[in-house]
Amino acid sequence: MIPLSHYLLVSAVLFGLGTVGVLISRNLITILMSVELMLNAANLALISFARWHADPGAHVFVFIIFVVAAAEAAVGLSLVIAIFRRKNTVDVDELNILKG
Amino acid sequence: MNLTMFSPQLLLALGGTLLLLYEAFGRENKRTLQPVCTILVLLAAGVLLWLSDGQVGLLFSGMVIFDRFFIFFATLVLLGSVLAVAVAAGSLAEQRAYHGEFYALVLFSVLGMLLLISAANLVIVFLGMEIMSIPLYIMAALRRSSSRSVEAGAKYFLMGAFASGFLLYGIALVYGATGSLRLEEIAAAWADGAGLSFVGISGMLLILIGLAFKIAAVPFHMWEPDAYEGAPTAVTAFFAAGPKVAAFAVLLRLIIWTFSISDPIIWRFVWMLAVLSMTVGNFLAITQSSVKRMLAYSGIAHAGYALIGLVIGGQAAVGLIGFYLLGYFIAAVGAFAVISALEGKQEESLSFDNCAGQGKTNPALALALALFMVSLAGIPPVAGFVAKFYIFEQAIQHGFIWLVIIAAVNSIVSVYYYLRAPVYCFMKIPESETPPAPVSLGLIFTLVFAAVALVVIGVCPELFIKLADSSAMWFL
Amino acid sequence: MLNTIWLIPVFPLIGFMINGLFGRRLTRYGSGVLGCLTVFASFILSLLAMLFLGEGPHRFTLAEWIVAGRFTVSFGFLLDHLSAVMAVTVSGVAFLIHVYSTGYMAQDERFSRYFAYLNLFVFFMLVLVLADNFLLLYMGWEGVGLCSYLLIGFWFQKDSAANAGKKAFIVNRIGDFGFALGIMLIFWKFGSVYFPEVFAAAPEMFVPGDTLVTAICLLLFLGATGKSAQIPLYVWLPDAMEGPTPVSALIHAATMVTAGVYMVARCSVLFALSPTALLVVAIIGAATALFAATMATVQNDIKRVLAYSTISQLGYMFLACGVAAFSAAIFHLMTHAFFKALLFLGAGSVIHALHHEQDLRHMGGLRKYLPATFLTFGVATLAISGFPGLAGFVSKDEILWSSFASPLGGVAFWVVGVLTAGLTAFYMFRLFFLAFYGKSRFSEETATKVHESPMSMTGPLVILGILSFVGGWIGWPKVLGGGNSFEHYLAPVFAAAEELLPHGVNHAHSTEFLLMGLSVGIALLGFIWAYRWYLRGSTAPENLKNKFPAVYRLVQNKYYIDEFYHLVIVRPIVGGSRWLWKYFDELVIDGSVNGLAAFVRQLGQAGAQPQNGYFRGYAATFALGSVAVLAWLIYVLS
Amino acid sequence: MDFAVFWIAAGVAGAAAINLIFQSKPINSVLSLVVVLFALAVLYLQLSAEFIAALQIIIYAGAIMVLFLFVVMLLNLNQDQFGSNRKPGLRSFGVLIGGTLIIEISLIARAFVSSSPTDGQVVAAEFGSVAQVGRLLFGEYLLPFELTSILLLIAVAGALVLAGKREEAQPPEERS
User: Fold this and answer.
1) Which of A36, B410, C385, D101 lies at a 20 to 30 A Cα distance from C539?
2) CA-CA distance, C367 to C433, in Å (whole number)?
């Protein structure tokens, strides 16, 4: 039986890497994927806690998070397309008209 | 299970779906009928809400709550949305941001807010948050032809998704500490000592960070000025009206009820958030040359003032914050409505220079703007003053003198930039002639309603304070 | 009858609403008549209220405003002898100035807007003086500030007017901040903001000299220094002269700027509990009186002379408050309202006649052209200089006597006061001579167009002239055979404060006579000095400087002392005050006000640095915030 | 055996995640994310979450990632766009913040385990099975389940508004 802390450690690493991805990548699509990584980290934490508490409720929650991730991805990618149509780039640093 | 207590949400879901179908298959009169239907649905939801007043209960095996708290805050949200939609009806097409789906998205977003306010389970908190937010991201980018609008949508979306990652992780940690997603059970476990565990508190902090993002508290605020400025102004009015109220409601439900904090860590955290938000929001608002952006920063500052209520804590906080938000959002929606009209077709957001001479060309609009600014600045005798005063007064009674002093300094600084708008309207010579602004029926409705409401609340606030206080009678 | 006092402020409010909303539909005539009539109605009601008041204070609550738990604030009005005097003075002077304005502003294209603002001002001012609680008073206080701001910038086409409005606004904010904080402390300590409750509870709650009550008083006084233009917050008032002249007369001389004095008098009980605060008030008042008077001697703009004069006279009133002679302060407030309004209106008449010429160096000899203005202006000049028998003499003497005889006063205060009186006579007669006597120094072309103002303007001048003459008689001092009925009238209001204060020794009548004589003599010196300098000897001080080789001859002259005074005292004072005005006023105080504004802006700009538009920066801030919070949590918990 | 599987899956997930964020070609990032998802599915199986593991592969890796792939292909992005003008400062700053976050959360997680009395609970064989989760989904969690349909509806509407083929100019005013 693998201790809970191991799973949590993996989850923490994935969450941190997701954050790093959001902070350093300039490609909008990569940022979106980094966010997916963060959601997956939370999923892993939930599933391992569910096992710990022997409570399958969190499994349903994770399923719902899948749908949320799908919706977020759909809207996010539509935004990427909209931006690409206007600016012909997906570089997030090009989005800097609004500031100050 | 009594479904009438859930009927407002059902109605909104149904209305949104039907409007989406209407947009796809309808032919005639779409642009007139869509806003009218939307407003009717929102009003009907409000009526349904109050029809069940007096009942209390958990629904859908403990997923959502129906109580007075829900009724009050949902009413605020519905009211704000009606005002914003009325503005949008006239101005979206003017600003080349018309998409028929907008109205369905409004209803879905409001549904999300209602879910948030009535959430009794962290699943619903998360889901409500997403159902509320995703339409907002889309709306921000509604003016697809404008780089600004698209940029606003993209930044808002990216930050929002990033923040919801933190929120979700926080929920996971709280679940780990307490073994449940239901607020009732979490509250019980919290009282038993789970709240003292490391994981529990850090999970709650992460949840608070996710919510602080939604109410745009410093340092989680940076999306707001950009999103507010870039979005079509009618949409900005909607941003100011609904989401913050809903986020504050869930914040109250979580902090005051579920986590029932007397914990010094959280308390200090909220204290810091309040001080930072007021100060940063105000000082950045001073330097703005765009009225819309100035109001965005002012929104951050107002979130800070409202957070004072949370610092005071206890059930009193519910009434305080409820009343404060009432005073805030009416003035903010009104101000955005005026800005929307004054902007007309121009793509850039309204700058102070654009305001010059409006007192002459659009006297009614300029006067209304002045009134809203006076209210936001908290000058007697309008609603903003009473709201601010009430919250300061309670803070003094509870011994938070320093917090009130900081807030007072801030609100005095704020008068400077709020009054800039009317000063430009009435006391500056425009460089070029300003055309009369287009005025739609919906705009008139919103402005008159907001102005009258602000004065009425300012002059006889008692009734409204009582109403807000009664919302603390929540399901326990 | 007394329950209708709430109507007193309501009438001007109605005027404001009609003029503001339908001003353009009304003719000029309609706006003007409406504006005047509403204020006149308030005046009549105030007079009636004063007559029916009788003995005690009367409270009337129109409606509850905020009720939250044990805390309530209402739209409540308090009519006692103090507020009755204030209401009558304010509405009376305001009415006269409204009438005057119909003539003065006749050519202005935004005529109805002007009257709307003026009515709004009167409304707030009356709310301020009639309020029965601090919060309503604060509302009036903010409201008059707002109107002042609007009216200073009324001719916003001029940059200087817009800037002056801004300056007034910023400076007043500093004062208001103190005031607001003071009210908060009062509420925190007393749990109420109603005057009767607070003042009744204060003596039981504090021992005299308590730190908290001193803090409260000093904060309130900070508010007063802002509104009433005292050191160090006086700088906005001279600039406020950019507004139309009737506005200067009404707001920046007769009524609004005296609100600080009224507030201090209203809180006499609190101040009586804090000798320290009283001392501060007295020192600031005396210093301002002298300081502003010296600066008035070197101004060339007719309105600026009067502005510094107003600051100086307000200093007198605070001096009186500081030595706990509250009724003397209110008395001077009232007489000052008469003669200073008259001076401003007279100046306005001159300016009007000369087509907006305000520089004294381009006037002169107006006696012939403007007989009515000349006469009334002369009365006012005599009154403010303290000519025996006129209003100013009576009230000023009351203050000087109190500053000497009061147990809180002292010789030093009296000396400063008397010096100021001398300077006042000097600069007022300088102004008077430069404007009305001598050769006219304006062009021939102008001379043909100079004409006396219309009846609507001279009428108020005459009425105010009569008031400046006889207005003081109601407070005729005992020593001169009067009964000082004014002091008796106000006595009930200040009785509570009197009880808390030490009682003074009785001075002999002879001392009082002596001091009175001295002060009149010094005022006379000032008059002679001005007469010598500006009327007889030479038309300008510069000429005097050229005569330096002839110093010996002048020394032989029988006016040796006079000249000595010029050389040794006056010249350094004139030079010094010019220096003060130039460097201290413009550099230090203006500089710090502007610097503060610039600092705040820069702070904002520096703060906006992270908001540079880059999403990754935003996300980094967010993540940094979260990381910091978690780090703090880990630190605290482990 | 368990430990070996765990460590391999965890290592793969970590490595793929690192590859994801440091790749300059979006297509490689997408594929890395798919690898992460598969590795996580293995961990889910270890945690007796069969249903979720299956969904992870079917929905997440199968549907959502295809969406990503589709957009990457559609826009035909190449890495050259980001070659120049990188900001190394922000990059190391991001890594620093992320690293701190990892350490912090690990510390928090460790505290949880050390403060918990039992070492996990024994679960029944049917824990996490399709039947059990399904019953919950249509029982206790009916409302959230139904609400997800609204979410998908929103996503469809959003895609239409944002990326739909409409003329950039507004359609002419309708006849009324």
Assistant:
1) C385
2) 10
Q: Quick check: helix, strand or coil at residue D98?
A: helix
Q: D142 in contact with B at a CB cutoff of 8 Å?
A: yes
Which of C608, C613, C623 has the CB atom closest to A23's CB atom? C623
Check pLDDT > 70 for residue C572.
no
Map out the domains of chain D with their CATH numbers: 1-83 (1.20.120.1200)
Interface confidence (ipTM) of the complex: 0.93
C615 and A24 within 8 Å at the Cβ level: the answer is: no
Asked if residue B474 has pLDDT above 80, the reply is no
Residues in chain D predicted with pLDDT less than 50, given as ranges, are 83-85, 168-176
Closest CA to B129 of B138, B116, B120, B139: B116
Tens digits of residue pLDDT in C195-238: 888 888 888 888 888 888 899 999 999 999 989 988 877 878 88
List of chain A residues whose C-beta atoms are within 8 Å of the C-beta of residue B175: 46, 49, 58
* pLDDT at B399 > cutoff 50: yes
CA distances from D22 to B187, B385, C618, D25, D95 (A): 42, 52, 20, 9, 11
Confirm whether B415 is domain-assigned: yes
pTM of this prediction? Answer: 0.77
- Whether A78 has a pLDDT exceeding 90, the answer reads yes
Of C623, C626, C634, the CB nearest to D107: C634
Are the beta carbons of C339 and C309 closer than 8 angstroms? no
pLDDT for the residue numbered C580: 61
Out of B19-28, B84-93, C180-189, C444-453, least confident range: C444-453
Q: Report yes or no on B44 lying in a domain.
A: yes
What digits encode the pLDDT tens for the residues C237-247?
888 888 888 88
Residue C538: both structure tokens together: 């030479």
Which of B96, B135, B145 minimises the CB distance to D154?
A: B135
Q: Vertex C308, ends C306 and C313: CA angle to 5°? A: 90
Cα B320 to Cα B156, B256, B388, B393, C32, distances in angstroms: 29, 13, 9, 10, 45
Measured CA to CA, the distance from residue B248 to residue B308 in angstroms comes to: 12
pLDDT beyond 60 at B284: yes
Q: Could you report the per-residue pLDDT of B316-375, keeping only the tens digit for each?
A: 889 999 999 999 999 999 999 999 999 888 888 888 888 888 888 888 898 899 999 999
Are C23 and C119 a contacting pair, CB within 8 Å? no
Instruction: Report how far residue C462's alpha carbon sits from residue C469's, in angstroms, rounded to the nearest whole number.
Output: 11
Q: Which stretch of DSSP H or E encloses residue C78?
A: strand C71-79
Range of the domain at B226: 3-470
How many structural domains does chain B have? 1
C326 to C231, C417, C577: CA distances (angstroms): 20, 16, 30
- Asked if residue B475 belongs to a domain, the reply is no
Query: How many Cβ atoms sit within 10 Å of the Cβ of residue C232?
Result: 17
Higher-pLDDT residue of C147 and B197 is: C147
Largest CA distance in chain C: 92
Q: Taking CB atoms and an 8 Å limit, are D142 and B13 in contact across chains?
A: no
B280 closest CA partner among B230, B219, B345: B219
Average pLDDT score over residue span B271-276? 93
Q: pLDDT band for position C573 (50/70/90)?
A: low
Residues in chain C closer than 8 A to B459 (CB atoms): 63, 65
Domains of chain A listed by start with CATH number = 4-99 (1.10.287.3510)
Q: Tell me, yes or no, whether B476 lies in a domain.
A: no
Q: Report yes or no: D90 at the B interface, CB cutoff 8 Å.
A: no
**Residue C441 near residue C363 (C-beta atoms within 8 A):** yes
DSSP letter string, C473-527: GGG--GGGT---HHHHHHHHHHHHHHHHSPPPPPPPHHHHHHHHHHHHHHHHHHH
